[in-house]
Amino acid sequence: MAIVLGPNQYGKAETRLVHVTRDGAVHEIKDLNVSVALGGDMTETHLTGDNAAVLPTDTQKNTVFAFAKEHGVGEIEEFGLRLATHFVDSQPSIHTARVHIEEYTWERLSVGGTPAPHSFQRSGVETRTATVTYDGTRAWVVSGLRDLVVLNSTASEFWGYIRDSYTTLRETTDRVLATAVNARWRYASTEGDFAKSYAEARRHLVEAFAETHSLSLQQTLYAMGQRVLENRSEIAEVRLALPNKHHFVVDLSAFDLDNDNEVFFAADRPYGLIEGTVLHDDAPDAGLAWSE
Ligand SMILES: O=c1[nH]c(=O)c2[nH]c(=O)[nH]c2[nH]1
């Protein structure tokens, strides 16, 4: 029986890059967290410690900063594509590159109603994400968002589920439905207006959440993915992970008070986690798009 090296990858994780565009007095800011994972001929470094095939993770980090200076950042999908193709195309020992980027949003401050030229506030909304994978021949782009917290204070029911000897949950035709949307979507191609696609996908996700009279979070998940696919032909597949942020009606009967869905205990954990994929049945092959 032999022991062999299985799948492996390596790279610099979570390089925090802030890029300021200083064209004149009005500045723009991009705040990114960039993670690189490379794969290739890495048997020797693992088995003998011969590092001839290894592009140091320190170099990868330097490349992220240097590319931001040399080419600017632009949309995170474009920055990811530039980096991923560079690592594979410049190093014979590197065969695949995956660049995962998170973007934190800053809003321009306003002073007396006038946009401030160089002052910003971190906005506490969702994080935009992009993952680019390149294998020397093909590239795949997955975009997304995470931690977009949304809540419907009605128009949500949950009943008709399995009841066994451990079931205590009461059926409801009116509950609070809240979740932190974690969505990723795969593009059919690597060309496109990624800023517009992001804004539109986000809008359709939110609108579907708000407009769906929900009989389960699963149903809402499907409606959200379906809405994106119906409206954005450049997107082939949507993957969603929706934590059910439970809001429990507090029993106030001990105080002689009724509670008609007005006072809730917002539970932190445990939470239901609803995950699903919605895709066109003739979607192009996903290839390495979702590889971790
Ligand atoms: O929308 C829901 N889906 C479930 O599967 C589930 N399970 C549960 O306890 N509450 C809920 N709500």
From TrEMBL:
Binding locations of 5-hydroxyisourate: 57, 158, 175, 218, 244
Gene Ontology MF annotations: urate oxidase activity
GO process terms (BP): purine nucleobase metabolic process; urate catabolic process
EC number(s) stated in the UniProt entry for this protein: 1.7.3.3
InterPro entries tied to this protein: Uricase
Gene3D superfamilies, sorted: Urate Oxidase (3.10.270.10)
Keyword vocabulary terms for this entry: Oxidoreductase, Purine metabolism
Annotated transmembrane regions: none
Amino acids binding urate: 57-58, 158, 175, 218, 244
Catalytic reaction list: urate + O2 + H2O = 5-hydroxyisourate + H2O2
Active site: 12 (charge relay system), 57 (charge relay system), 246 (charge relay system)
Top-level taxon in the UniProt lineage: Bacteria
SUPFAM superfamilies the record matches: Tetrahydrobiopterin biosynthesis enzymes-like
Pfam families the UniProt entry points to: Uricase
Keyword Oxidoreductase attributed: yes
Binding, O2: 57, 244
Listed pathway(s): Purine metabolism; urate degradation; (S)-allantoin from urate: step 1/3
Membership in a protein family: Belongs to the uricase family.
PANTHER family: URICASE (PTHR42874:SF1)
Free-text function comment from the UniProt entry: Catalyzes the oxidation of uric acid to 5-hydroxyisourate, which is further processed to form (S)-allantoin.
Name assigned to this protein: Uricase
Source organism (scientific name): Herbihabitans rhizosphaerae
Lineage of producing organism: Bacteria, Bacillati, Actinomycetota, Actinomycetes, Pseudonocardiales
